[in-house]
Amino acid sequence: MLRVEIDEDGKLSLNKIETGTTADPTLLAEKLKVIFDDREKTSVSEREVVIMPRGEIKNEDVEKLIENLANVKASPIRVIKNSF
Q: Global pTM?
């Protein structure tokens, strides 16, 4: 499973590796594209991404992130919000 975390400052991480910010998600998109391309070469069709917001995150930032993930053909995209 691919897990994207977004913190209160808009920093993004992919499976605990820093991958840019909500203001510039280019690095995240590039990494996901490479992962999906590698998976496709090995006949793995899994493209699920789980977004895990940490702290108080603006809805606009989450929506922008979802849009960027959709642009690299991530699917399904799930958002898991914790109450703590």
A: 0.88
